[in-house]
Amino acid sequence: MGDIRQSLLPRDVLSAAKELLYHLDIYICNLVQSGRQPPQVDSKTLELVEEFILHAPKDRNTPARRMSALQELQLLEIMCSCFQEQSRDAVRQLMFAALFNLQGNQADESRMALLGKLVSMAIAVGRVPILECAATWLQRTHRVYCVRLAQVLVDDYCSMVPGSVPTLQNIHSASPRFCCQFITAVTTLYDFTSEELTPPLELLQMIVSWIQDDPHLVLITFLNSPISGSQPITSLDVTPLGGLVRWCIKAPLVYRRDKKQALTNGSSENEPEVGPLFSALHLSVLQVLMLLPNILNEKGLFGRLALLQMESLAALTSDLSRLLDQADKHTHTSSADTLALSQLALDRLAQALQVAMASGALLCSREDLRAICSRLPHNNLLQLVLFGPVMYYNNIHTSPLAYSPHAAHSPIAPLPALPTHRAHTPHAPLAPHPSSHPQYPAQPFMTGMPFPFRPSH
């Protein structure tokens, strides 16, 4: 394609970009049809992309070509149409890679800027092929750039344009694969290290509703991708489970800290309560972990692939220890509240560790866990996990594993509801102690959940 440069130079910036996209589509179609494995776009073509689409100057003596805002919008519409009209996924993926795979040069900033605008537009107008290509890009790109793309989308749909959250929420049905990668990216971005890195309420509500409606969503990348023995350390995790666990455990202490800072700065106390959201998210994460034994067994990966990494858990327990130390400094003002929130965070850590180990998502010994939890304060449940027996949930029945990236998956059946108790009348005289309590029936026992022991009656 290097010989078309001279024909592109006299054209205006939009016309040249459109013409190059047309030739790029033909070139990649021929490349795929040739059967060359793996198909690879040559460097001359990538240079044309940088010069006429990304507008990076070819050399210092050549002035950079610039588009007006209207021309840039028209280019984005042309690109959306180009990907929508191309029916072959292999061609689309290779074309997307030619446009947006990072090359380690000065054009990468232009790539990221154009990519953010293109994906944002694809979400707005429902261009699924672009979202599918972006999902692949998120799997293969350094996490630093993945979180930059996630930040652009969160800013566009949760901050800049009021009322646009429902548009972003539609990606769950439009492209579950992209939705899964988006969750992984935002849980990596928002690590609760500062108020700015705490997820917006709208984003939190959206993610909780996604996972409650479709718990398999967080496993889509894992289920539909060939998994090698080890993921590149620079890429996003293969599932968002690690980030979601971090959110649930750190949330009680982080939101208390941020609320105190807001009150100190004179902000309104009428902030929405996020506690129930994180409780629901924590339950959903545990339910997803319970799906893993059969999935890992069917893939032949049980005991061989850890979806939760010890390094991440060590960093989490270190952060948790620091947050607990900070909370202890304020015990003179609200000791009961601080203790309750601290124990809630530790309870969630213990629950996540136990279920993750039992389901095969976490591969480590009790000694390893005791080492990374050694600086944490006492918690009864955590002590049981660190020193008690492990039950491996290999006999839990889960649904079949043939998940299409475009199909909506059946949600996990909800837990049995506890019976509603009749309200007590204040100061009513106590009735004689009966032999049984029919008004308080026992909590239903879940037959799919094995326990190491049951109390004797």
TrEMBL record:
Which Pfam family would be a valid example here? INTS15
Annotated organism of origin: Haplochromis burtoni
* InterPro entries named in the record: INTS15
Q: Which domain of life is it from?
A: Eukaryota
Entry protein name: Integrator complex subunit 15
